[in-house]
Design brief:
Elements: H1 3-23, H2 37-46, H3 52-65, H4 69-73, H5 77-83, H6 90-107, H7 116-119, H8 127-138, H9 148-156, H10 167-177, H11 183-196
The protein binds a DNA duplex (10 and 10 nucleotides) through α3, α6, α8, α9 and α11.
DNA sequence: ATCCCGAGGG
DNA sequence: CCCTCTGGAT
């Protein structure tokens, strides 16, 4: 891409980030227990393709029954499944919770590792969850958590090209586009934007604060 | 019907 | 690259 075009694109990207900041000031993780890295990891793991509300509803009972990684490591999977039954994919997630706890105990000395590669060895923890936990629990901003919202919005705003057809390629493109200081806020603000305004199949373009910066406004 | 702060396996 | 896993809210 010619340098002038690249510069224009970056300026538009920065403008978008600033608007996001104005519209969603001090946005933070909608999941509870961000003060405890282990609990946050489990909460984010549980939240895959379910609502934050659903997760926040079941985690109090989960932590009451299993207050520590050690307690969860010793848990009966069926009992865990019973507690989280009301959220989606609960069968696999219950098994992953317990496996996570066991691995944290056996391999990581009882603590969530502060390392992008190691943390993804936990079952059910992929790159998106890893980014969220590193960012939220440890203040380590190593990448951008690309979920379905970030993916959709990046493409709709044409901040990434059509070849960025996977979450990883989209993340790489956004990392090149945005200076480091913008990475953290994207994780929280774009999700809110995606849920409230740029909704997947019926975006509210009429009331969107980015419509003048969006090549796809109205489509 | 559609969506929800995805990951793992074939 | 595709598929599957899941229940609740709107």
């Amino acid at each position: 891409m010619p340098r002038e075009l690249m510069k224009e694109k970056r300026e538009r990207a920065i403008a978008i980030a600033q608007r996001m900041d104005e519209h969603f000031p001090a946005a933070e993780c909608a999941l509870h227990y961000w003060g405890d890295p282990f609990k946050l990891t489990i909460a984010v793991l549980l939240s895959a393709q379910t609502t934050d509300r659903g997760v926040n509803k079941v985690t109090p009972a989960l932590w009451e029954r299993y207050p520590t990684p050690q307690a969860l490591a010793n848990a009966d999977v069926n009992e865990v499944e019973e507690i989280i039954r009301t959220i989606g994919f609960h069968h696999a997630k219950a098994a992953n919770c317990v496996k996570c706890a066991r691995m944290v105990i056996s391999d990581f000395g009882g603590e969530i590792p502060q390392d992008m590669t190691l943390i993804q060895k936990l079952p059910g923890v992929g790159r998106k969850t890893a980014n969220v936990v590193l960012n939220e629990a440890f203040g380590i901003v190593e990448g951008i958590a690309v979920d379905t919202h970030v993916f959709r919005i990046a493409h709709k705003l044409k901040l990434v090209g059509p070849s960025a057809d996977t979450p990883q390629k989209t993340e790489d493109a956004l990392l090149k586009l945005y200076p480091r200081q913008y990475w953290g806020p994207i994780n929280h603000q774009w999700v809110l934007f995606g849920r409230q305004i740029c909704i997947a199949r019926r975006p509210k373009c009429a009331e969107c604060f980015l419509s003048d910066l969006c090549p796809n406004s109205g489509k």
